[in-house]
Amino acid sequence: MLALGRNIERCKTSCKRFLKGDRRMRAHVSSSFKRFLISYLIILLIPNLAGYLSYRTSIDVAESSSIENSTMLLRQSAEILERKLAEVEGFTKQLAINQDLNLLINEKRQGDAYNVFGFWKTMRDLSGYSQTNDFLQSFYIYFQNYNVILTPGSIYYRPEHYYELNHYVDEPYETWKETILQATHERTLLPARPFMQDKNASSMLTFVQSLPLNSFGNPKATAVVLIDERKISSLLESLTSQYGGWAIITDSSGKPLASQGLTKANSQAWQLSMSEARTTRKLDDGTLLITVRSDKTGWMYAAGVPKEALMGKANTIKYMTWTLSAAALLISLIIGMLLSYRNSVPINRLMNVFKEQVGLDTSRIRNEYDFLSGNISDLIANNKQLQTELSLQMPLVKDAFIKRLLAGEFNSAKELEAVRSQADVVFLQPYGFVGMLKINGYGGIDSKEIIEELSAARLIVKQMLHELEAGLHATDLGSDKIVMLLTPECEPDKDWQRAFEARFVPCMESMYVNYRISITSVMGGVYASLSDISRSYSEASQAMDYAVHMEEKRLVWYEETMRESMLYYYPMDTEQRLMNTVKAGEASEGKRIVAEIVAWNFAERELSIEMKEQLIGEMKGTLLRLLDQKAFQDGDFSREIQERIAALRLSDGMEQVRQSMECMVDDFCAVIAKKKNELQHEMLQDMMKYIQEYYQDPELTIYRIAEHVGRPEKYISQLFKERMGESLSDYLESMRISKAADLLTGNGLTIDEIASQVGYNSAHSFRRAFKRVRGVSPSLYRQSAN
């Protein structure tokens, strides 16, 4: 108690010095710090109260623990002994049913002749029994008819010879022969007596059984098992070695069978206390006596636990309790102050943030938690409101994406897919039609009333379109036009066009009947991919000019318009899309655009020779402008492509021209792919070099690697996975584990030090990672390496 008081005083003094000396901590001593500290001090009372209660109950716990352990050990010893004795009894029963043995017992002796083979065979059969139970290491069988003793290793044709080597010290031969060999026994167990065996003194218990079983005064043979008292006493060593006491085993009549550590004084005290019926009681010298009686044999197992053993454990608990309580109190006070400081600092910082950013006066606030929770709730509400406003803006984002598709502003399929995913626009199929609808009767009128009427008409038409076809996307084009992207469920053909027209035309007629809305509707050609939508939109625009000029009232398809034209079709946006596609290295998309240009102008138009020559000249100019890019400045490649471009002639046939241009697109894209491959290879080498240099840093992450190479995390992760066959994080972990394995082969560093050197914050995470990669723990790996 005095030591505890001194520790408390020292703790108080340290706390006062800590509070006075640390100016930074004093600056943050606020009401939140005080609340944290008070709560921790209250919690400290719990371990101290638990220490006091443990001290008060230590003696009772020690005594009950000793009683339980001793009783359990006694019962275990009893079970083991009875099981082994049951095996001995089972051994005699096996002898009773042994056919060879029964033949020897029951056969009549012919003069002085012996059944030597029968004895030899029986001795060989019995030699294996001594290996199954250590109680059967010394036994013999006496045959009345032959006057022979048979042991597992020898045959004694005269009992006198066996008696000379193995006999009780206080028992003559005749008495032994009369009471053991010739008397009738039924599972008889004789107490331990001094015994001479091969001129070695010992103490033996004797188990005797007459054969056959239930001989009733006329035994033909006797099986005798000699059990060394030391083997029984060894079962009690666990008691005496643990508490330093003594133990004894008696039979049902109270005769001692075996003992361990029993002195003459202990024996007298034990015999005087056996008259009491309790299983646990204290002797005069303070020894705790524990007894267990077997229900099967009636034997008594007793153990004496000295008083010193009981009180020694209690004293140890007492000293450990007070020492640990004092140390825990001191350490907990220091930790409580540090935790109070650490937990109050973030709250104070948040309060300062609100003070600086929001302009609130936090000095007069009594409850920081209520203040923070209220303001954070406002932030969450504002965030939800912002999300709601963003969701309201999604239609505008989708509309902008559709307009960019129609204008053909996407340079690559990856860019298109990224923007489509961000706008959350879903296309049921990659193919379809671009349609255009014009509301008639409002040309050149821009009054406020007309604009509002057109807006209402567009809403009605869009609603009708969505009800007519699932997966349709529509956007406004000016005040009187609507463009729709129509995606068929199956491959579009003439039958599908007729079926769609059969559903579409009645809807247009009902619009006029119900709302007096007159509509001119056209459909462009089929687009085969999303990047081809701009071409179908251009065709729809041409079809709309035709339908307005011809005053068509039906649904007009682009292929139904006039195909003869004096001009070729090669708009600037298509040329720019071709160049961007080639610079992106997408060969298949570039060849598809070339094939579409040829199809638009030679399959769907009837151009003159001059227009065809001009078209080929424009396309050759596009390829020459590509050569001006820095990626294609290689001298040999540039000269070869210029020669191939100059060799393009209309006289070779348009199919040959198309194939030549597609081959050049392949060559351009191959150069881009080579450049990309070189850049990616350099980037991979830079990443691996960076990892090799900084793998020891626990803060090394994919974000830092991406920041180093100047690319997004997702890009470098996907690139590393594609080129190296494993993820970037797995590569980093594999390198760290490989370096750790090299360090584990030496004996200079501990596992904790190795974990720190290879970039792990804790040894626990290092052990888990090492076992996951190498299949064994670091310690086992070090042992196998050594």
From TrEMBL:
InterPro entries for the chain: CdaR_GGDEF, Homeodomain-like_sf, HTH_AraC, HTH_AraC-typ_CS, Tscrpt_reg_AraC-type_HTH
Keywords from the named record: DNA-binding, Membrane, Transcription, Transcription regulation, Transmembrane, Transmembrane helix
SMART domains per the UniProt record, alphabetical: HTH_ARAC
GO MF terms, alphabetically ordered: DNA-binding transcription factor activity; sequence-specific DNA binding
SUPFAM superfamilies according to UniProt: Homeodomain-like
Pfam families xrefs: GGDEF_2 (PF17853), HTH_18 (PF12833)
Ranges that cross the membrane: 33-55, 319-341
Residue span(s) of domain HTH araC/xylS-type: 685-784
Protein name, entry field: AraC family transcriptional regulator
